[in-house]
Amino acid sequence: GNSVTQMEGPVTLSEEAFLTINCTYTATGYPSLFWYVQYPGEGLQLLLKATKADDKGSNKGFEATYRKETTSFHLEKGSVQVSDSAVYFCALSDSTSGTYKYIFGTGTRLKVLA
Amino acid sequence: DADVTQTPRNRITKTGKRIMLECSQTKGHDRMYWYRQDPGLGLRLIYYSFDVKDINKGEISDGYSVSRQAQAKFSLSLESAIPNQTALYFCATSDFRGNQPQHFGDGTRLSIL
Q1: Are A89 and B42 in contact (CB < 8 Å)?
Q2: Are residues A84 and A77 in contact, defined by beta-carbon separation less than 8 angstroms?
Q3: Which of B48, B99, B107 sits opposite A93 (nearest CB)?
Q4: How much is the pLDDT for A92?
Q5: pLDDT tens-digit profile of B5-28?
């Protein structure tokens, strides 16, 4: 079945450091891939998405490229800020099975220190 | 106003009580979902509904029931709450077109003593 695996946290970085959060997936069809961010006390918010191979999603300085050959969708940011401290979830949606369900990774907590 | 509104935001109750969590949305989406979030386990799907007459069990539906009262309203009930149902619960919606992102409410933190 479909699954999403992302690196365990917490990830602790200093402000202005480079961020990578790894995400790999398994899917039987042609999924869309998403990164969501969850700030304390809030629900998940869509950060970026990619719908087909080689697409690059980007938003707020974050980027992720849909790599079909490595089944990966790693999240990157060149210079993190304290305000980026949150939990990040990788997710996929696969419509080819007809169910349109969403599969989430377990989340990676990022803490950015000033 | 939020597009997806969950009530209550926090609830503490006792074992054996019946509890209803409510979700309403103004996004006009047909599809609605209930998840629970536990530390280290990510989000797990409880129930989902693709329209008012279509309700489906998710991966952890035991001990829960749902009602889709209208396109905009989807409620989750715990008929007889137990402590291991203590968790953060999220409602989400999505467009009928496949592979679109979901939109989440801010969650209900439920504690069962």
Answers
A1: yes
A2: yes
A3: B99
A4: 92
A5: 999 999 999 999 999 999 999 999
